[in-house]
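Illustration 12: Conidial pigment biosynthesis oxidase Abr1/brown 1.
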Amino acid sequence: MIRTLTTLGLYGFVQQALSKNVYLDWNITWVTAAPDGYARPVIGINGHWPCPQIDVDVGDNLIVDVYNGLGNESTGIHWHGLHQNYNGYMDGVPGVTQCELHPNQRMRYVVPIPVLLDEFIVPGDHAPYGGLEPLPDAILFNDMHNTKISVKPGTTYLIHVVCMGNFPGHALVIDDHDMTIVGMDGIAVEPHFLPPQYLRVAVGQRVDILLTTKNDTSKNYAIWDGLDIDEMFVQEGRSPPPGYNPNGTAWLMYNEDAPLPPPPIIHVNNASLDFLDDVTLTPIDNLPLIDPIQHQFIFDVYPTTVDGKPAYSINNMTYNAPDSPTLYTAIYSDPDACLDPDLYGDVNPFVVNYGDVVEIVLNNHHDNLHPWHLHGHDFQVLQRTYPYGGFFDGYRNVSATPMRRDTLMVEPMGHFVIRFRAMNPDK
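Figure caption equivalent — predicted structure in token form:
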């Protein structure tokens, strides 16, 4: 028996007949919460944290009236993983697809729900921290510390893993259980049996796995999650604070009366070999490599600072938020003028036509790895180097049916090549 949290919709005219509008009314406020045992102000909805789960069916329209009750912060809601086809003004990125939602302002989001497996919402329009990137204080599983997940014996579960962190990637191990990967960022993939490698999930990525429980219910098993030490400390040239714990533990509960075991001991000798290389997976629909390309953009990415705060430049340009959202500038400009990159200011624009095939080569000139998320599209991953694999100098063994996803990690002093068809004109 397979258990899953995913609600599958009906297709064709049956789906249309059952589609509905789902209305929500959200007041975004500060609330005090202590998810890891230490109280602090966090962003909540309608006075509560954790924020509410949204239950919708495929084909529904999600209609959310949002009020910014934060008082001291502007905000916007980004629906991570929903591509908002022809609906880009609902993508929720201040300065890009919408104006900031200032304190005491309201906005209605109308979001069509396509076929999806694992997406989440991101409220925010927050300035970067000064100095180094902030360190996470703790690891939470489903908004909690020491989470216990009850399971039944002899059952196969579909588990959606979502990395909602703000800085480092995570490694995930379920002690003495095998996992089979069946999806990445909402793209179904040919089943991939994970052992002996470990699963690494970058910020913003989603992974779908199948896990079959044991028939023996005499023991419980630890779920171990570890923050990427290299990403936080080694590559940043700093040391962990005294007593800092980069690990977290939850448990698969077969038996409430059995003790909780300690987390497994993980040995990572070579991250390039010990963790799954997600680029090697194959989408189940076998979509062929899109070709030929109309544009190849080469992004040379360097770390830098702006007003003493960490930032990154692409081709020696840092992003400077425009006075008017980029999408609005494009919509309200003369059709010929909107093709001129100079119209958009210091946002490093690259203008393409509808239907063009776009290839992006990203060279990472930094001794750290970084996740990259593309709004509005899935992209094919043609290649990605191992750490310190060098910069692009040509194609290497490109698959005829490349992996697709919308968030990808680039390795330190390495590169990746992605390709997509520009079929979402509001992006």
